[in-house]
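Objective 1.3, modelling of assemblies. Example input:
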Amino acid sequence: MKYSTWLWPTVLLLSALAIWVVYMFLPGSVLRPYIALWFFVLCPGMALIRLLRLRGIVAEYTLAVATSLTLEALIASIQIYTHSWSPTLTLNILIGICVVGALLQLYVLRSTSHPGEQSVITS
Amino acid sequence: MLLLKPPEETLLLPASTPPARLWQRLRLQDYIYTLLPLGALMLWLFSLPLFNMRQMNDLGLISVMPPSAIIALVLITISFCFTLQDARFREPLILLHIALLIFMLYGVTALVEGAPRFSSVYKHVGYTDYFVRNGVTDPGLALYFSWPTFFILGALFTQIAGFHDATSFVAWAPLAFNVLYFGPLFLIQRSLTRNRRVIWLAVWIFFLVNWIGQDYYSPQGMNIFLYLVIIAILLHWFKRAPGAREKSGNWFKRVFRARRVREKPGRERIEKHRVEEHKNEGMSRWEWGKRKVRWWVEISDTIVAPSTFWQKVGLLCVLFGVFAFDVSSHPLTPFFVLISVTALVFFRRIQPFWLPFPMVIMTAWWVLVVGYPFLAGHSNMVIGSFGLLDSAVTLNVTSRVTGSQGHVLITELCLIMTALFWLLAFLGGVRRLFQGYRDLTAILLAAAPFPLLIAQSYGGEMLFRIYMIALPFMAFFVATLFYERASRLPTRWLTVGLIVLNVVFLGLFLFTRYGNERNDYVSTQEVAAVRTLYSIAPRGSILIRGWEGGPWEFQNIEKYDSYSLDDSILTVDIVDNEYEALNDYVKQRNPPAAYMIFMRTTQASFAATSGLPPDRLRQFEHELLASGDCKLIFKNKDAEIIEFV
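Predicted structure (tokens):
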């Protein structure tokens, strides 16, 4: 398996584990805001966006951040409007998305090459 | 990227990279262009303790900025210009310069000021605090409770990160938002040109002229990012491919229009040749002109990123998700998205053609259904200024040029910077036009936000928002002024021109962006005083601040009636010293308690914007205390709390 295939799924799984541990068991940890920021800004989106196998690192990161923030905002808003606000539940949903996305990446991207490695069509 | 045009404007890079290690390929210039910005950063960091915020005058932050900090900024600007002009183009070095510029320009206030700056930030912290404590929305409280998604996101982050409230992190919002803007901005510029120097210069200029200051902890700060992401997705993956002919497919694929396309790369050149032929065939000048314009408008952009059907489906899901966030978090930005997307679709720059329809439905549903409680009570505010261009110009421009001498100077500099920037963009656009480039996409996106000035004055802020939305495309045209063709190597005069323009922009930025810093700066003493007020005021109390500005309404907003002395509802004529009117108002309301707070910020704001003598507010406070109806209950270096008895 290629390095680029397993690196991000591993990072995503470790990030999901880290945020779950600090949120549930180490609420007073000084690392909590930094881990939360990392997870919050990038992880759920990266878990999904990498499945699209887009070409270009800037494109991938930009869409991952936008998707993460959008997912978090929309899930939390649905809870507010349905009077079921629960940051813990939102976090669990986001961790679920992250884990499922990471596992899907391992499965889907395992045997396929990245489109970025295909030849560029030119005239 | 599909390269359909001969790469005449592709940057000239060495044909083949020598198979040497990185350190062997580095030249003396590379070391210089790495050490210069890092040296500038060090100089800037050492300057930070020399900022004396209490000495600030009406010119804002620049009045207390140590010369070494200014030199550091000029140094990094000059270093960027030389790096950009270097024959061997080093993108990592350019990126280093831009990253440091963002940090130095947008992180400075978080580092030198003890508390988050800007009054509106505290109001937004109060909205976030409401969601943290209550977990529901209340559209009756304020406009943003009908567009609450951004604050809900803030509340979620506050709780997951374990902060007491949002004041712990909001000071870093300008830096964070500008870092976020980089990604979509780069994608947008890359979809407009292949000239790497234009791309990076446009990105640099964007950050150098973003003086509007809408990137504080606010829905609009986030929505600018969302707008850029939507436009980046459309320009990068959904442009109409040149000469695209669609293969047959099922209805689902027809709807998504994401099939593979057969490329006819030579079409645009053939079309242009035909236009020229007609000229020779004796066609009238008018007919020939019309045909040329039509050709110019109809030819598709040549830079299109390849993507598969499922990639496009996924990207559309992301696009509509982001737009849903946009629609539910800000009342204005969705209209900027709508008008830009509609313009692109109408002029056949992007596909699918149906994109604006679901966007209109989503926006209308949110405004008319979810936003109805606000709309019902403020219909005149929403549609009352429709078509009143005079009033919009007065509110957005003329009425701002009032107040103290320093404040007027800053406002005039803002107008000068905007006019200069737009003029240069116009010249860049005209130059490109005469050079035969077809920049219709960039022109449309630069012009699309302007019609909204007629629709709404947005409390005198519409021009700011238009400036911000058009900024990436205006920056593109300004950047093109310097690089006609990438194949033409930079000249010495061009380098001088580039340095002069960037240093001028930098100077104007320091005045315009932080020119009102005296009003926007909030001290830790003021925050402590207002926290004390919240701790002693019983529920239902009336809280009045001396003037607009300062940390206000950032805690328990639903529990208090909060006012400013400049609110028309209080009808206090401060010139005639009508403190009795204030007393009468309080007695009439009969609250459990009533307090008034005078802060350093309210005093500064009064001096800059009221048009009255600066010590008038201080006199009012003394006379209020002397009346015997009030007593001083708290005092620190920057604030005094008075209780009505």
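The two ends of chain B are 73 Å apart (CA to CA).
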